[in-house]
Here is the input.
Amino acid sequence: MRIAAVVVSHGHAAELERLLPALVPQVDETVVVANVPGSVGGVPDGVRVRDNPRPLGFAANANLGIAATGAEFVAIVNPDAVPEPVALAVLAEFLAAHPRAGVAGPQMRYPDGSWQPSRRRFPTVSGTIVRRTPLRLLFRPMERQTRHYHLDERPTEPVEADWMLGGFLLLRRTMLDELGGFDPRFRMYGEDIDLCYRAAKAGWERWYVPGAVVTHAYDRASDRRFLDRRTLWHWGGILRFVRKHPERLRAL
Here is the structure.
């Protein structure tokens, strides 16, 4: 049971200094995709760095890293998502014991130790409008959208999920090969939802495994403003998801 890790760094050399010492001992191979100059400083022995000749979107970079590895399970890891010891072993053991599980996500916690709602339901039209417009100032999603964020659930045992935050996921290579990996047309945001949605349609299970714990800084940059580069990327991801899966427009 071999595990590979793929980390995409877009100028996150400082975060990698904290992440890699915690990540590398838990995996058999590690690839860091350096999306722009200055994305990587010193790395532990055995870590391979791929320098991009030009910047790419997150999904395309993840696919490059996946293609550069050969392990049965592949962890997609954000530079700000630091696993606790044995977190990856817990996720890999779960996937190994459940042949139709294609995605396993950990319990995520903020740096202060508080719980982070990383397990979520597939988006609905009304919920998305609230989250992505000024309506969120009146109907605060992290307080009101209990169903979407599973705010009233803190499972201690593995439970199935629609999708989970792509900041830290362990993926089965067989599933990735079948689905063709992430859709590189997503520049940033939405690629994790799209992958999980396609996995669901293909009969692959997605599981939240709270016995694996990851500290995730998760700055939620696209939630702080209504119109900037990141919010435009977020809206682009939403529109692409709807174009690919128009049946979701019926989920009000």
